[in-house]
């Protein structure tokens, strides 16, 4: 029974992260559109950063904690990237086979492979120095600037679909009241993200210690899935509406932001040292990322069979995390 309150706080933290990201993205998008910023640019900047905000807040909170839960900070990003590819893409493809734009296959996917490889090379020794964080964060700044320049020459880019419908509907409203309302959404969203991240990390660490579960496992599973809720909601909604062409691009972009922005900024603020990094976890992240190459290169589509393979792979990985002895791993 002593776990029940902490589970309740964990659920509340997850809910606040999900709603907070939605509220912040809506308000910031409305303000940007009102300032005559193109919807395409809003999709590539405000929305992209907004959907990665839960991972950023959780990882920053964990690394800056006086007792430093760096394992949760890293596990959150590694687990979230695995979740985005294996769980979310798997679910989306099962709902409806995905069409992937040629730009994603030619540009975003190779960039993700290079960025993932660089991140693994940096973190494999169990730490990220501040200079490495600065390098990664500069990478995301360069990527965003390049994406905006490229998007201006291709106005049909699918990032347009990222902007919330509510933001587009209210962007044309003028006057002080609508502006204050949009600001209110931003403030409310940020408050939800900050408090939700605090509750999620604190309760997650407590539950891990009570159940003798490594904090890294909590970060790789419960926290990772929780911070991926905005992407999950967007993925399911887009798949049901038949907007399957934007899903793979969104999730690959989210993985880029998770590594370059979340890990970059987190380690740039304070060097990140992991106590129990398991090389198998980063190998799994690399493996799922590499698996996208043969899946997406063949016809620029992800069918239900391939989605099922990704989903089964993710469920197997989760079982391995909780019950490694079932796979002959001891100690």
Structure notes:
It comes from Haloferula helveola. It is found in: Membrane. The strands form two sheets. Strands 1-4 form a two-stranded antiparallel sheet. It has 331 residues and is an all-alpha fold. Helix content is 77%, strand content 2%. The protein has one domain: A middle domain of Talin 1 (Up-down Bundle), CATH 1.20.1420.30. Helix 2 packs antiparallel against helix 3 and helix 3 runs antiparallel to helix 10. It is globular and about 60 Å long.
Radius of gyration: 19 Å
Widest beta sheet: strand line-up: 1-4
Largest sheet geometry? 2 strands, antiparallel
CATH topology: A middle domain of Talin 1
Give unreliable regions as ranges: 157-161
- Could you estimate the helical fraction of the residues in percent? over 70%
Distance between the termini: 29 Å
Q: How does the SSE layout of this entry go?
A:
Elements: H1 4-34, H2 39-64, H3 70-95, E1 98-99, H4 102-123, E2 127-128, H5 130-153, H6 165-170, H7 176-210, H8 215-227, H9 229-240, H10 247-269, E3 272-273, H11 279-297, E4 301-302, H12 304-322
Antiparallel strand pairs: 1-4, 2-3
């Amino acid at each position: 029974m002593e776990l029940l309150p902490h589970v309740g706080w964990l659920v509340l933290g997850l809910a606040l992260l999900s709603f907070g990201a939605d509220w912040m993205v809506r308000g910031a998008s409305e303000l940007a559109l009102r300032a005559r910023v193109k919807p395409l640019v809003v999709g590539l900047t405000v929305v992209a950063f907004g959907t990665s905000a839960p991972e950023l807040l959780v990882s920053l909170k964990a690394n800056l904690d006086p007792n430093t839960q760096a394992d949760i900070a890293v596990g959150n990003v590694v687990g979230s990237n695995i979740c985005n590819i294996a769980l979310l893409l798997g679910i989306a493809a099962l709902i409806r086979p995905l069409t992937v734009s040629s730009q994603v296959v030619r540009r975003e996917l190779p960039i993700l492979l290079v960025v993932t490889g660089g991140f693994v090379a940096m973190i494999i020794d169990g730490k990220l120095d501040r200079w490495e964080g600065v390098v990664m964060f500069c990478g995301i700044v360069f990527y965003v600037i390049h994406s905006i320049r490229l998007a201006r020459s291709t106005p049909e880019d699918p990032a347009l679909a990222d902007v919330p419908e509510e933001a587009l509907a209210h962007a044309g409203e003028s006057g002080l009241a609508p502006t204050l309302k949009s600001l209110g959404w931003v403030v409310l969203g940020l408050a939800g993200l900050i408090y939700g991240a605090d509750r999620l990390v604190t309760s997650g660490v407590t539950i891990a210690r009570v159940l003798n579960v490594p904090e890294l496992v909590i970060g790789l599973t419960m926290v990772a899935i929780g911070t991926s809720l905005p992407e999950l909601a967007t993925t399911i909604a887009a798949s049901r509406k038949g907007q399957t062409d934007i899903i793979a691009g969104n999730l690959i972009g989210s993985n880029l932001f998770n590594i370059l922005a979340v890990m970059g900024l987190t380690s740039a603020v304070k060097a990140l040292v992991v106590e129990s990094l398991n090389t198998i976890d980063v190998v799994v992240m690399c493996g799922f990322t590499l698996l996208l190459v043969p899946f997406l290169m063949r016809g620029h589509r992800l069918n239900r069979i391939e989605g099922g393979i990704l989903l089964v792979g993710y469920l197997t990985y989760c079982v391995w995390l909780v019950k490694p002895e079932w796979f002959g791993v001891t100690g």
